[in-house]
Specification:
By secondary structure, this protein is of the alpha/beta class. The chain contains eight helices and nine strands. It has one domain: Rossmann fold, CATH 3.40.50.
């Protein structure tokens, strides 16, 4: 029951990793504030969690909206102890194919959303010695093909993590980043469906292909990533701050030029 008397604000909480994290926090005695742009998925998650969940639909990249969310969450639960900055989206296209609008969209979805959420919550986190977990990606460490906006913003989230850890550690605030690899979520399913169509593969065959050279040879689940987030958000990791934790089935341990030697 690591989250007894603790309140976690989770962005992108309606589906996938965000929803799984909310369920994990509540299962361990905590309260959750569910934030996202689409109300229906948020209320579907909240229905499973009862009075332990507060739904506050908002665009996590809107600073005024997130200021209001933190105020309402604090008024309702009395405090906010944990921020899970999970909201995100695509930033598709190589540099030459990325429009100004596409670039701004990637910045807002992946980077600005984390920044304004954390900034709004910092006064309360400082007073209570809070914890921040930012959901980056393997794209925060490496570059995939033709995803400039996503890659750049996920890299930048690691910089935000380290800056928060450095500047606010003296106030008892910890900040850590999680870098998932392929995880079975609705967004990843859509990517696998498109990839599978281009190769004449089913969704399952597409997942198998993109993970065949990872040591564990499979994608992760949202619950597995939620387990990592819960550890970093809890007092079990009290000495951990500024860390970047890969949760990628071992993908980042592979030396790419040696794949054909296996």
């Amino acid at each position: 029951m690591r989250f007894t008397d603790r309140v976690a604000l989770i962005t992108g909480a309606g589906t996938g990793i965000g929803a799984a994290t909310a369920r994990r926090v509540v299962a361990e005695g905590g309260k959750v504030v569910l934030v996202g742009r689409r109300p229906v998925p948020l209320y579907e998650v909240a229905e499973q969690l009862g009075t332990s969940a507060l739904v506050l639909p908002a665009d996590a990249s809107d600073s005024a909206a997130m200021g209001a969310v933190v105020e309402q969450a604090t008024a309702h639960f009395g405090r906010v102890d944990v921020i899970v900055a999970n909201a995100g989206g695509h930033g598709l296209g190589a540099a030459g194919d990325t429009t100004d609008a596409g670039w701004r969209q990637a910045l807002d979805a992946n980077l600005t959303s984390a920044f304004v959420t954390i900034r709004a919550a910092l006064p309360g986190l400082v007073n209570g010695g809070g914890s921040v977990v930012l959901v980056s990606s393997l794209a925060g460490l490496f570059a995939g093909p033709e995803v400039l906006g996503y890659t750049a913003t996920k890299h930048a989230l690691i910089g935000v993590t380290r800056s928060i850890a450095r500047d606010y550690g003296k106030h008892g605030v910890r900040a850590n980043a999680v870098c998932p690899g392929w995880v079975r979520t609705a967004m990843a399913d859509e990517q696998m469906d498109r990839f599978g169509e281009s190769r004449g593969l089913t969704r399952e065959q597409a997942y198998d292909l993109v993970t065949e050279n990872t040591p564990l040879g499979r994608p992760g689940t949202a619950d597995e990533i939620a387990n990592v987030i819960a550890f970093l958000a809890s007092s079990d990791s009290a000495i951990v701050s500024g860390a970047v934790v890969t949760a990628d089935a071992g993908a980042s341990a592979v030396d790419l030029p040696t794949i054909e030697l296996a």
